[in-house]
Specification:
five-stranded mixed beta sheet; Nucleoside Triphosphate Pyrophosphohydrolase; alpha+beta; single chain; three-stranded antiparallel beta sheet
Amino acid sequence: MHRKKLLDQLQSYTTTDSHEQAMLESTISFVQENEDCFLRSNLKGQVTGSAWIIDPSKTFALFIHHKKLEKWLQPGGHSDGDGDILNVALKEAEEETGLQNFVKVNREIFDIDVHEIPERKGVPAHFHYDVRFAFMADKSQQLVISDESIDLKWIALDEIPDFNNEESILRLVRKTKGL
């Protein structure tokens, strides 16, 4: 698996958040140590790509109500062998929202998060090394709920803690307000 592009992106990414910095270092180590970091067959963990989708006013973000995890999250998923994580994030955004016309906020990583996925259906608990990119989309586009979701909705940034108050989500909100 080709890891150089991702490693270059990770090594050029900077953050002032000490917790995110620790997750960045953990992600770099994981990618360096695991040639199969992009495959679900790696039972220690996998690199995933997420899309933080905001509206042009930067006051709303698009969330899916994830069916398996039963929580409101940004679109994203497994890379399934694709080492171009920006492409993974965009593909997941399209598949999970039905939207097609995204504008990349930039080509740089927007956020890094490492989180544990609980054991499910014989797959042991493992980690997702989530590389997040920011996109903009028009709120007037029609949304399509995928098979992986219960619901899909634009949520005002100030209301997001009512749907998901995990630090990794609140960090995305703070970063968006700082754009």
